[in-house]
Amino acid sequence: MSDCRIQLTINGQQTSVEAPPMKRLLDVLREDLDLTGTKEGCGEGECGSCSVRMNGELVNSCMVPILQAHGAHIETVESLAIDAELHPLQKAFLECGGAQCGICTPGMLMAATHLIAHNPNPSLEQIREGLAGNLCRCTGFIKIFDSVITAAAMEGSRTHAR
Amino acid sequence: MTDDSTNPAQRRVVGTPQIRKEGAEKVLGRAKYVDDIEFPGMWHGATVRSTIPRGRILAIHFDESVPWHEFVIVTAADIPGNNHIQMIAADQPCLADGAVNHCDEPILLIAHPDKRLLPQAVASVRIDYEELPAVLSIEESESKREIIWGADTSTPNVFKEFVLQKGNVDEAWSSAACIVEGEYSTGAQEHLYIENNGMIADYSDDGGITVWGSLQCPFYVHKSLMAVFNLPEDKVRVIQTETGGAFGGKEDYPSIIASHAALLALKARRPIKMIYDRMEDLAATTKRHPSRTRHRTAVDKDGKLLAMEIEIATDGGAYSTLSSTVLSRATLHATGPYVCPNIRIRSRAWATNTVPYGAFRGFGAPQTIFAIERHMEHIALAVGMDPVELRRRNFLHDGDTTATQQIMREPVILDQLLDRALAVSDFYAKRERYARENATNPVKCGIGIAAFYHGSGFTGSGERRLNSLAGVDVTLQGKVRVLVSSTEFGQGTNTILAQIAAEALGISYDDVEMAPSDTHLIPNSGPTVASRTSMVVGHLIQRSGRQLIQTLKEAANLSDNYTRHDFFAACELLRARDGEVKSLSRYEAPPNIYWNDDTYTGEAYPAFAWAVYVAEVAVDTITYSAEVIDFHTVQEVGTVLNPTLAAGQIEGGVAQGIGYALYEKVQLKNGHMFNNQMTNYIMPTAQDVPPIHVYFEQIPFAYGAFGAKGIGELPHDGPAPAILNAIQNATGESFSAIPLLPEDIFLRFASYGLDPENITA
């Protein structure tokens, strides 16, 4: 199949790529746009390491053919910090020990961002549900829950955005 | 400034929740894992694997539809050195040569510039085999109908055997009030690090081989590459990239994938990247050893242990790899934290035609601790005693001897840990309440306990043989660097070693960084395994720091009450004299550590971490699912170096232990894992983990860094038996095998005619 030209907005910047229409959004981000913060863990939509936001929805970028992302707004982990200023969730993950090996962290941060965008003060049960699609093998999730609760209480956890 | 390791009040950095050294890079998404790295002209590699468990390779056919001239192809004939992966023995080929001994064994390697063409090319290689009968279980291996390993030895099919004796078991049976027998088995477990195995290799005639990759033990990979390529030390360079979880799964396997990538790089004369996808990683790489443990125990009328006879069998897979050392740790943890005058343990690791089993957090201990802690429950039932009380009566205390005749010289505070665990979990009140409520509730709740130890560091003479070297230096830019081969893979090596260096040197945590994990730049501080980093390597960093301060005082007039500025100024004076500012320390065994490898007696470990865990479960007798609803952990791990990281180790280990007990089942057909996807190999999610409460008691160990002992593996040892003990408390049903899935519980209840009324709690 020949390449197609895809227009999309990544982290607030308009861009276009030439890619096979079935190329995964994950691979376009990592290979064509050099945004390697988004990780592959399973390639089948189970682990959530490749989570990004697409038009405000949380998606597994390994399950999105790039054709489907034409015209879309994509937010990746690289969008969270503004210049040198970490996003409250990033600060909380650092302080609370929410990141260990770090490979699930970008996806986990995107899922948590999505959660807080919809629910600024989530309960523990809502956090468990909101992060259920993101697997972490290091932390047992406890310190991730702590991080999200801590971030939600911080100034600007919802408004911090480009 | 002093670094008095016995006085917590004088510490500034150790014991505080310092932020993870590489944490900012991780939360920003900037940390570079191996798959994030690209080199100009780099090609991609893939592996053609065996589809049968045992046989001879007759012919290899390359389908003509593939433009093979565009590919580089490597077979065993391309190996310049030895065709084996150098672990303890040299029985595992790097690439199969004429025969295969397990499914998914690597046979040949291919590389191409476009990675998307590789899967089709791999599928287009057809191999003709003469199949041989395969041995696929411990029992089949024991039967010796097929000899698949060690035909020329006196113990064919056996990788390793230990016999450990204390007192005289045979004379004890007749005086017993009660003899209790039991058989316990544990399944394989996948590490499921979220970053799969991956490696990049490059070759040049001048520089030799360089590999970059996801790994735990740079010098294991280094040693393996030297053998495979017949190259001297300085022509092999191993660089660890950010590593996305390991848990033991990147202890030995990286030597294989590094060798493969480097063989392709040598032939292609360009950098080669090999990244496994999840299905390949699950099917082809190591898992936790499956095990079967049989207990026969004599107890007196008061519940005191009189004799323990224990027989352990592990499935080692097709090659010996680390099976002997895993078996050793399994053997040395088999009696649990109990004192008994008469003990006989016989353990064997068996060869089967499955993917070799390997290191996994706990390293044999979770298997035999599951057995003894379930068995103690059965003994309690047999003698009519509260299982908590039975344990208390048999706990090791100061001055007691273990199965290896090791005298407990360090304080043992099991009673204190037990008391605290009972108190914080409200054990007795809950047990009573659950029993009351279960009578009318289809969801049966229960509470269970497990007590255990985990030996810190290498077993027996292991640390002496490793002879580790580690230290610190000071850069021209005014940073102290920690020089170790101990790697970071999430567990906190960077952070705790930097804390230890800062504390020992009397400077701030921010003044310390890690030297790159590159075998050309770092000394060999041993592998990052065996819960040894905090205790053993940390202590070398502490000593190196003290030594440097002493040198600065003598050679550069550093005053007793020096400031940060004084310290770095003195370092520059030392540099002007010596050309560098560097302090290294070599391992010295603590005094009174003796070990006899022949009789398996003596100090098995310089120190032990101790714990009592309490699990609470809810078993739904309509869906047959068991869920852990609360979990309390009380442990003594020496000094806690970083409370946030330490709690994170415990919580993560408990979650893995819950998966080991209730969710994670490796399903094999012909020795090939066929549920090799995250869709059907199930680990605990955010919705499956209970609250995990973490409590530490701290008794500083004089020969660990600022009193630290090992912590990383301990939390995987206790959850499985505590959970199955809780399920027994909830349902009255005793299960002796893990993983325990809903279908297993269903089958048990189905045998009673499916009537929940038959379930008595």
UniProtKB/TrEMBL annotation, chain A:
<dbReference type="InterPro" id="IPR051452">
    <property type="entry name" value="Diverse_Oxidoreductases"/>
</dbReference>
<dbReference type="InterPro" id="IPR036884">
    <property type="entry name" value="2Fe-2S-bd_dom_sf"/>
</dbReference>
<protein>
    <submittedName>
        <fullName>(2Fe-2S)-binding protein</fullName>
    </submittedName>
</protein>
<keyword id="KW-0411">Iron-sulfur</keyword>
<dbReference type="Pfam" id="PF01799">
    <property type="entry name" value="Fer2_2"/>
</dbReference>
<dbReference type="InterPro" id="IPR012675">
    <property type="entry name" value="Beta-grasp_dom_sf"/>
</dbReference>
<feature type="domain" description="2Fe-2S ferredoxin-type">
    <location>
        <begin position="4"/>
        <end position="80"/>
    </location>
</feature>
<keyword id="KW-0408">Iron</keyword>
<dbReference type="InterPro" id="IPR001041">
    <property type="entry name" value="2Fe-2S_ferredoxin-type"/>
</dbReference>
<keyword id="KW-0479">Metal-binding</keyword>
<dbReference type="InterPro" id="IPR006058">
    <property type="entry name" value="2Fe2S_fd_BS"/>
</dbReference>
<dbReference type="InterPro" id="IPR002888">
    <property type="entry name" value="2Fe-2S-bd"/>
</dbReference>
<dbReference type="Pfam" id="PF00111">
    <property type="entry name" value="Fer2"/>
</dbReference>
<dbReference type="InterPro" id="IPR036010">
    <property type="entry name" value="2Fe-2S_ferredoxin-like_sf"/>
</dbReference>
<keyword id="KW-0001">2Fe-2S</keyword>
<keyword id="KW-0560">Oxidoreductase</keyword>
Automatic annotation (TrEMBL), chain B:
<dbReference type="InterPro" id="IPR046867">
    <property type="entry name" value="AldOxase/xan_DH_MoCoBD2"/>
</dbReference>
<dbReference type="Pfam" id="PF01315">
    <property type="entry name" value="Ald_Xan_dh_C"/>
</dbReference>
<protein>
    <submittedName>
        <fullName>Xanthine dehydrogenase family protein molybdopterin-binding subunit</fullName>
    </submittedName>
</protein>
<dbReference type="Pfam" id="PF20256">
    <property type="entry name" value="MoCoBD_2"/>
</dbReference>
<dbReference type="InterPro" id="IPR008274">
    <property type="entry name" value="AldOxase/xan_DH_MoCoBD1"/>
</dbReference>
<feature type="domain" description="Aldehyde oxidase/xanthine dehydrogenase a/b hammerhead">
    <location>
        <begin position="28"/>
        <end position="133"/>
    </location>
</feature>
<dbReference type="InterPro" id="IPR037165">
    <property type="entry name" value="AldOxase/xan_DH_Mopterin-bd_sf"/>
</dbReference>
<dbReference type="InterPro" id="IPR000674">
    <property type="entry name" value="Ald_Oxase/Xan_DH_a/b"/>
</dbReference>
<dbReference type="Pfam" id="PF02738">
    <property type="entry name" value="MoCoBD_1"/>
</dbReference>
<dbReference type="InterPro" id="IPR016208">
    <property type="entry name" value="Ald_Oxase/xanthine_DH-like"/>
</dbReference>
<dbReference type="InterPro" id="IPR036856">
    <property type="entry name" value="Ald_Oxase/Xan_DH_a/b_sf"/>
</dbReference>
